[in-house]
Amino acid sequence: MIKIGQLNALNITQITDFGVFLDAFDYGSVLLPKKQLSEEPEVGQSIHVFLYFDSDNELCATRETPIAQVGEWGLMEIKSINSTGAFVNWGIEKKDLLIPYSEQRARFNEGQTILVYVYTDNASGRIVGTTKFNKWLDKTPQHYTSNQQVDLLIAERSDLGYKAIINGEHWGMIFSSDVIGKLFIGKRLKGYIKQVREDGKIDLSLQKIGVAKMDDLSEKILALLDKKEGFLPLNDKSTPDAIFKVFRTSKGTFKKTIGGLYKAGHITIESDGIHRVK
Questions:
Q1: Which of 148, 152, 150 is nearest to 161 (CA)?
Q2: 48-68, pLDDT tens digit by residue?
Q3: Which H/E stretch holds residue 261?
Q4: Which CATH number fits domain 73-134: 3.40.640.10, 2.40.50.140, 3.90.550.10, 3.40.50.300?
Q5: What contacts 157, CB < 8 A, 6 or more positions away?
Q6: What is the C-alpha R_g of the chain?
Q7: Rounded-to-integer distance, Cα 126 and Cα 53, Å
Q8: What pTM was estimated for this model as a whole?
């Protein structure tokens, strides 16, 4: 089945001087221009292409990969604004993505970079973007457990911290006290479920919580020590940035963890760093 607004694997049915025609099933044939062919084509060959409709509602194929396909979020720069809405750079040379005014939470300026969700409008059949994310999230029951690892997309900054999209399905919050490292709108990273509240709101952490956090970090430290011939130039005096760069954890957690490893006799803590006890 053809999926407009997504990558599809289509077979070559005809080769011409200006490109190849691909079998688009119910949509007939679609042309892939010659300049987008990286190798000598053969009839019957399968090619991955992105499908979309142009301004004349004609089906088009490209081997360019958009910043976000239908059903995905992506950071996009606003190229122009007119009476219809804002047009953003979609990552396709001949096709910008429209964000209608009705799908804008705020008015934008040209050159501004924003997070956009791409979807197909049921009424018009057009692929458009939106910055109104609420109607696409929290539509299914939460199914998370404490310390479960999840994929996060930083979507908003608030007075409390950062709102993040969890696995493309739900809203979650990383409170300022739980922020480690640098976060920014559009950043994708791994995180953990801290708790699901009675009202359904989800608190997030960028590292495991409780004993599991310490155990996980202990294993990482010992594994890296073994890999680095028993020495790491980090200790309880190291800067938070230096610690985060290596272990993606806070200095407080790192200090508690190496303290536990020291008491257990696994390491020594010296002025130049930590050493593995043989």
A1: 152
A2: 999 999 888 899 999 999 999
A3: helix 251-263
A4: 2.40.50.140
A5: 163, 185
A6: 25
A7: 8
A8: 0.78
